[in-house]
Amino acid sequence: MKNIVFRAFAAVMILMGLLIPKQAFMQEKLQGKITISGAFALYPMMVRWADEFRKLHPGLRIDVSAGGAGKGMTDALGGMVDIGMVSREVYPAETKKGAFAVAVARDAVVPVINAKNPALKDILARGITASVARKIWITEEYKTWNEAFRIKQKIPLHVYTRSDACGAAEIWGKYQGGKQEDLNGSGVFGDPGLALAVKRDPAGIGFNNIGYAYDQTTHRQVEGIRVLPIDLNGNGKIDPNEVFYETMSQITDAIAAGKYPSPPARDLYLVTKGKPAAPAVKAFIKWILTSGQQFVREAGYIRLPDSQLQDQLKNL
User: Fold this and answer.
1) In which residue ranges of the chain is pLDDT below 50?
2) Residue 107 near residue 268 (C-beta atoms within 8 A)
3) pTM for this structure?
């Protein structure tokens, strides 16, 4: 009797082996190369995703480079790369050219000042509003720190902005009721460059994606610069419920909870020319929307709602 049962069980297992594809038991290993360029905002996250995905597919090469959202979009539409990283909404004209966007995470742009600003304590206590920011970057009505922040010291205001076409400047301009082209100040290329310019100038003010305002190792504010809080209710001071900037976890939690305004919080996108067709590219994007989401928070980004992730998967 036992032999009969054993033979029946063995027959069933053999039949299952014939019916179920081998991929169900062993994940297919991808080969080839994926090229990616674009937004500085998404670059650290993409590097992490690429490293983790290569662990699953050692035969796959993934090249990632930063150069701004504008470059990512141009490279993707021009066929220079497989995927463009874009840290702003996709324009209708880009969609007409074939841009296919997939939202993969969320982050924000924050205003930054030098940690050695002579009036640092008073400035941090007052914070900044969209109206003040507009008078600094767009209309240039404010030329000194005492005009902008009502402090006693008469300190010249050294304003910095991005020189490259990028999502950070676009979303920072949008927060002020404008766009990147409206922002004035000394132009600096890239997120790292702008952070460094402010770090070197005690009278400097600029803006950065949170991945460059906070240290990726310590998750605290980058040495030499301070994130300038946003005065959410416009009462001229930073209230206890507006204090969430000390660590990367605090600011990302505030963004996730909707406490930090949008803009300058925003979604981050991967863009391809048309729906991705190459097996490796499609598999990588699907992995980012599923298993890859486990790395989002620890990298200093905000995970999208599950419903939004599912919508992105359906669109693929």
Assistant:
1) 1-6, 8-26
2) yes
3) 0.88
